[in-house]
Amino acid sequence: MDKLKKMNKTTKSNFITYAMVIVAYIIMQVLVSAGVVSSLMTGLLVPLCIYVMMAVSLNLTVGILGELSLGHAGFMCVGAFSSAVFSVATVDTITSVPLRFFIAIVIGAVAAAVFGVILGIPVLRLRGDYLAIVTLAFGEIVKNFINVVYLGMDGKGFHFSMKDTGSLNLGEGGKVIINGAQGITGTPKNATFTIGIVIILITLFIVLNLIHSRAGRAIMAIRDNRIAAESVGINITKYKLMAFTISASIAGVGGVLYAHNLSTLTALPKNFGYNMSIMILVFVVLGGIGNIRGSIISAVILTLLPELLRGLNDYRMLIYAIVLIVMMLFNWSPRAREFREKYSIKRFLNRKSIEKEEA
């Protein structure tokens, strides 16, 4: 009976998270249809979905697994370029747009997951600052490697070079797909706000169910006390690699949306560099480490706020900094935490269930 009650509480909490995303989507669609939202804000809707996905996926590594990763932008870059190469290469052969985009999403997720496994096997043996440094290096290596890659395609297949487009030796009708630092041009713009919301809901379903599953409890046990977890027979490597790979895969899907929202995809520092990884980490920290719902709210607020304050050009960054400080205090101040626990939705639901039982 207690187990059933606990499961119901978990289900209610998950339902609130899903409902929050769906309600936000409906409100935005109504505002866009009414013409209230500017074209600039409308253009931010897909990036908003991307940042939410990235924050949720990184929270799985930082908050649930308890490992600091600074290479999340690298997995996003892998997903973006692998999917963009597929879409550009098959734009004439796979005429069905939904099918091609679905395959691109799968390719981006799988490619990022593969890199997650390759990186995770040796790296997850490290801890703390060492893990952060190695993942940071991975992100920079991926970005810089793509900037020197030239990839073309003709009737004979793919041609690869690290010199220039002339050394690809493309035949008649051949086309350049990756043009070094100039990146990929002509990626189909298939990403939409609706697709982004659907993928966010799928991401939340995967992450929340993982957290509340047996595997999730094992992952959190490793985070809380590695030695104790190992002493009761929990396979440390298996569960750490599972969380890291799922996190990388979701970041790869975020990269797919990013690539298919732009006409030109480049591996610039502002796109997939160190600052992108830090920005996603800021979303996680300010939203509350281990708090999935907080990551969503933080990503939304910190993405929209600079644009909403664009009219207050002189005070924009000041207000932005104040909001960051307030969010930090709200999440980490002892009194604020007591207030949230006292008036939290979870406490409210518990009180209601007790009242029902007494009645």
Short structural description:
The protein has helices at 2-33, 39-42, 45-65, 72-90, 97-123, 129-146, 193-211, 214-224, 226-231, 236-259, 269-272, 274-287, 292-308, 316-332, 334-342, 345-358, and strands at 150-154, 157-161, 175-179, 184-185, 264-265.
Helix content: over 70%
> Helices and strands: which structural class?
mainly alpha
Shape label: globular
Identify low-pLDDT runs: none
Q: Tally of extended strands?
A: 5
Kindly, what is the distance between the CA atoms of the first and last residues, rounded to a whole number of angstroms?
A: 18 Å
Determine the oligomeric state from the structure: single chain
Strand content: 5-15%
Strand order of the largest sheet: 2-1-3
Q: Could you tell me the radius of gyration in angstroms?
A: 22 Å
Question: What can you see in these coordinates?
Answer:
With 359 residues, the chain is mainly alpha-helical. It has one domain (2-147, 183-308). 71% of the residues lie in helices and 5% in strands. It contains 16 helices and 5 strands. It has helices at 2-33, 39-42, 45-65, 72-90, 97-123, 129-146, 193-211, 214-224, 226-231, 236-259, 269-272, 274-287, 292-308, 316-332, 334-342, 345-358, and strands at 150-154, 157-161, 175-179, 184-185, 264-265. A 3-stranded antiparallel sheet has the order 2-1-3, covered by helices on one side. Strands 4-5 form a two-stranded antiparallel sheet. Helix 3 runs antiparallel to helix 10. The mean pLDDT is 83.
